[in-house]
From TrEMBL:
Entry protein name: Fe2OG dioxygenase domain-containing protein
Pfam families for the chain: 2OG-FeII_Oxy
Keyword entries, A-Z: Iron, Metal-binding, Vitamin C
Keyword Metal-binding (UniProt): yes
Coiled coil: none
TM ranges: none
PANTHER family: OXOGLUTARATE/IRON-DEPENDENT DIOXYGENASE
Organism: Dovyalis caffra
Domain (Fe2OG dioxygenase): residue spans on this chain: 26-127
GO molecular-function terms, A-Z: L-ascorbic acid binding; metal ion binding
Source taxonomy: Eukaryota, Viridiplantae, Streptophyta, Embryophyta, Tracheophyta
Amino acid sequence: MLVEAILEGLGLVENDSFDHFKEFEDGSQLIVANYYPSCPEPDLTLGMPPHSDYGFLTLLLQDQEVKGLQIQHDGRWVTVEPIPNSFVVNVGDHLEIFSNGRYKSVIHRVLVNPLKPRISIASLHSLPFNSMIRPSPKLVSDASPRLYKDTDFASFIEYMASHEHKNKNFLESRRLT
Ligand SMILES: O=C(O)CCC(=O)C(=O)O
Ligand SMILES: [Fe+2]
C-alpha cells in the first residue's frame, strides 16, 4: 500500500508499475530489535549514532513510554514523540536513490534515558537482497540528471568493510556528484 502510493506519487504507476510492484512484493525484510539500557549520564553517550536506514522504507515501532528517537530537520535534532498504536515510517537510502533524490533519506539518532530502558522494533523493507537499486529511468532526464550510482547489498557490505564509513555515510558514498 505504502509503496504503491509512493510509486504513484512519483508518477510511475502508468508506466512501469508492474515490474516495480512485482519486485517489491518479492522484496527483502529485515527486522531489528533494539534494547537501550538506561544510562546515568545520558549527555555523554547515544543509544544509536546518527545514521540513515539502509533500505526503501523502515516501519518503526517505538517504545510507547520512553522517547529517544530524534530526526535531523533544518540542522536541528527534533524528538519524534511516540504515538500509541502507530508506526513511524522512515524514508531509507534506497528510496532516495530510486527516486533520484525526490525523497530524502532521513538522518536520525537515539538518545538514552537516565531512568528507564527503551525498546524499539524496526522493520526494514526493500527490494530483494540481490537486486540492483538505481534511480528509476523515468525520473532521470536532462533537467534531472542521475544523482546516484547503482547500489546493491554487496556494495553496502563493501562500504562497511572499508574505511570510507568513518568519513561519510553510505548514501554519500553512492552519490555521483
Ligand atoms: O530505536 C529507535 O527509535 C530507532 C532505531 C533505528 O534507527 C534503527 O534500528 O535503525
Ligand atoms: Fe535507523
